[in-house]
């Protein structure tokens, strides 16, 4: 993120309010670069940081972070070739097996990811996969429900970062494991929608090893002067492409060694 900021403080607040409105009232907006074509990745993170401050001042709690666009399948699907990060709050969490309302989302899609829960503080720069594994308490399977606020799920890296990486809902579940007990790079995953297999993949799709994505996330946090505290919940990014969901749909993500996570969707 060695790019400069091009947005003024006023622009950052204005774009933050625009994204916040779209997120909280579930409507689509044009990508931000339509109006601010010179926007950089650093500008995107400045808008995201403003959004985080705003939610926290409204009483939301920061639970952790997510890496996004860390697999080839996702990069190809979204036409973006650089990973990104976003924050996760308590308001986005949903219990396993719960019914997720779609009426407060724009155009939700489900993804399966490996999540990490940390027991030691992590900080960059130069955070490595091994640092992440040493600081990990346990890993667990997760389903993320992303919901880009941009029309047609069409965006560029700057815009999606400002929209907090399309973060909307997340569900952890399955079976928690110590990272030393399993080979995190070779886990197979199958995603089923309404009983049919809609996507399959292996965890190596995420930068070769999901812990690599967490190290990258910690290094991006460092560029923003942030650390990853112990006790954080961190998702490493979708292994396969994201699958659109609508009311009545049922998603089951089955992970080798980690069990499965189910969610269903209602109006
Ligand atoms: C951006 C979010 C990507 C992932 O796991 O790759 C993401 C998007 O595709 O809207 O969460
Ligand atoms: Mg994701």
Give a brief outline of the structure.
The protein has 267 residues and is α+β, with helices and mostly antiparallel strands. Helices cover 25% and strands 28% of the residues. The longest helix is centred in the first third of the chain and has 17 residues, at 9-25.
Structural features, described:
- The protein has about 270 residues and is an alpha+beta fold.
- About 25% of the residues lie in helices and about 30% in strands.
- The strands form 2 sheets. Strands 1, 2, 4, 5, 6, 9 and 10 form a 7-stranded mixed sheet that branches.
- The protein is globular, with a radius of gyration of 17 Å.
- The model has no long low-confidence stretch (mean pLDDT about 95).
- The structure holds 2-oxoadipic acid and magnesium ion.
- Magnesium ion binds next to β1, β4 and β5.
Observed structural traits:
7-stranded mixed beta sheet; binds magnesium ion; 6 helices; alpha+beta; 267 residues; binds 2-oxoadipic acid; single chain
H/E element order: HHEHEEEHEHEEEHEEEE
The tally of strands reads 12
Question: How many alpha or pi helices?
Answer: 6
Helix-residue proportion: 25-40%
Largest sheet: 7 strands, mixed
Which structural class best describes the helix and strand composition? alpha+beta
C-alpha-based Rg, rounded: 17 Å
How many angstroms does the end-to-end distance come to?
40 Å
So what's the oligomer here? single chain
Heterogens: 2-oxoadipic acid, magnesium ion
Overall, the morphology is: globular
Q: Spans with pLDDT under 50 lasting ≥5 residues?
A: none
Tell me, rounded to a whole number, the average pLDDT: 97
DSSP strand content = 25-35%
């Amino acid at each position: 993120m060695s790019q400069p900021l091009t947005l003024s403080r006023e622009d950052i607040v204005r774009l933050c309010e625009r994204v916040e409105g779209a997120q909280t009232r579930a409507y689509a907006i044009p990508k931000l670069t339509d109006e601010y074509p010179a926007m950089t990745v650093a500008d995107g993170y400045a808008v995201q940081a403003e959004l985080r401050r705003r939610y926290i001042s409204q009483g939301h709690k920061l639970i952790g972070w997510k890496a996004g666009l860390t697999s080839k399948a996702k990069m190809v699907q979204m036409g973006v070739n650089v990973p990104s990060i976003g924050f996760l709050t308590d308001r986005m969490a949903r219990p396993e097996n719960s019914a997720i309302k779609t009426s407060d989302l724009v155009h939700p899609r489900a993804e399966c990811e490996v999540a990490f829960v940390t027991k030691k503080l992590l900080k960059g720069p130069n955070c490595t996969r091994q640092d992440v594994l040493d600081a990990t308490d346990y890993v667990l399977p997760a389903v993320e429900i992303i919901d880009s606020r941009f029309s047609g799920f069409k965006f560029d890296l700057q815009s999606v970062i400002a929209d907090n990486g399309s973060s909307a809902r997340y569900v952890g579940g399955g079976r928690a494991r110590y990272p030393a007990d399993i080979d995190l790079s070779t886990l197979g995953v199958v995603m089923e929608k309404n009983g049919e297999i809609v996507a399959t993949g292996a965890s190596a799709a995420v930068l070769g090893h999901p812990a690599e994505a967490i190290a990258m996330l910690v290094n991006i946090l460092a560029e923003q002067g942030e650390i990853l505290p112990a006790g954080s919940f961190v998702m490493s990014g979708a292994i396969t492409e994201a699958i659109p969901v609508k009311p009545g749909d049922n998603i089951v993500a089955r992970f080798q060694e980690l069990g499965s996570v189910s969610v269903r969707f209602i109006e």
